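> tool_call: predict_assembly(chains=two)
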Amino acid sequence: MFKWFADLITYDILRLPKGAHLSESLNFFLYDVPKIYFLLIVIVFFVAIIRTFLPPERIRQMLSHKKEFIGNVLAAMLGIFTPFCTCSAIPLFIGMLESGVPLGVTMSFLVASPTINEVALILLWGLFGWQVAITYIVSGLAIAVISGLIIGRLKMEKEVEEFVFKVKQVSAGGEKKLSWKDRVDYAVEYVKEIFAQVWLYVMLGVGLGALIHGYVPVEFVTQYAGRGNPFAVLIAVVIGVPLYSNAAGTIPVVQALIGKGLQLGITLAFMMAVTALSLPEFIILRKVLKPKLLFTFFGTVALGIIIIGYFFNFIF
Amino acid sequence: MEIKVLGPGCPNCQELEKRVKKALEELKVEATVTKVTDFAEIGKYIMMTPGIVINEKVKHKGKPLPRVEQIKEWIKEES
């Protein structure tokens, strides 16, 4: 359907010649933008509906008194459905520790929540296909579970700022029962908000991607970040960290570069570095974690991302 | 009236603060608006930022952000 729309405009209405740089770029753009918008609306809506069943109080309750491994896996999975950038996850992080959720388990949650984000997922699905999207989820979960397990084993409870354990939550007021109408209203609001935030980036990103797609020669990337370069994944992670939370704009560009010889592992590593690790996050986390734990946290996650990157380069 | 906007300072919290001020302006209501950025303090009220607390009652937490109209209603409830 989306292909038909793009072809209709490029070749039938505008009567551009097939195979020319301009028409290829335009066709690519007209195909990808509506498709991503469509996925964005549908998926964000359903994720938001699921989310209405998982308020933070519920998450906290589900994770308290869980055994090590099971707790980590569950925490990582719950992390997928939570809308948090790290800064909004911190109050929940505090709430969890205060109610006796083990540190390693909360860490799994803290890693998964920003790493596996629905916008990134949608873009990966729309531009690379569902196989890559699933791979992204599974690798994100693996990193979250493993880094949580490692941090749990290191027994670093002392490295959390003391005040965290002392916060006593004032009763947040009776939770009112949500009707289906409330849930749908919430989801619609949520879709509007996300859409307002990312539509422009998607368009710019895909636009730039479309230009690359049509104009940049295949050898360009292969020369700098192709199979021959063993440091490619590392470089991707280093570039990805400062590009805070702009998955919407970066993925389409990366996708276009893939067509030019960039490897999939590098893409995944890059994506995760963009969403999971960032400087603002580092600064905000410092308020609740002491330096030693903060560096351990960043170190394990970064290492995890790099390993995943090389692993997929090796497989695909 | 005392209104607290809770959030560590991400774009969402700033937007929320703007909306609260707009709501007050439109209603022509006087109130002290405090921005709470300290996690120890935020953690007392909510587990999801950003949040609004009016006269020590939690009115909102998390995303999506409430509309100005909604905030006006909360202000009316408390005044």
